[in-house]
Amino acid sequence: METDFSREIFLDTGLEKIKPQRHAYVFINTETEAYDSAIDDIRRIEGVSEVYPSKGAYDIVAKVSGESIDYLKEQIFTRIKNLSNIKSTLTLMVIDQ
Fold first, then answer.
1. What pLDDT shows up at residue 42?
2. Is 15 a residue whose pLDDT tops 70?
3. d(CA 47, CA 69)
4. How many domains does the chain have?
5. Nearest C-alpha neighbor of 62 from the set 20, 83, 70
6. 31 and 77 in contact (C-beta within 8 Å)?
7. Which CATH number covers residue 39?
8. Is there a domain that residue 13 lies in?
C-alpha cells in the first residue's frame, strides 16, 4: 500500500530510489531595521532553496525544500523562527496530489 508521505520513485535502472522532495513556503515578518540581515541569514540555512523580498503583509517569502516533512519542520521551526530578527512567520506546506 502506498501513502502520500512514504512514496518512493524508482529510476529506470530499478537499482536506485529517489525520494520526492517536500516543499514549504514561509511568509516572514522581520524587525524593520534588520530586514537585509534577515534575508542573508535565511539564505544561509540548509534547505532554503529560494528567498524573495516582498511587499504587503509579509517582508520575505522563503521556499524550504527537503526529503521529509520532519526535515522541513526542523529547518522552519528550529532555524528560521529562532533567528533574532524574525518577528513572525506563516508556513504553508505543499501537499502531494
1. 96
2. no
3. 12
4. 1
5. 83
6. no
7. 3.30.70.920
8. no
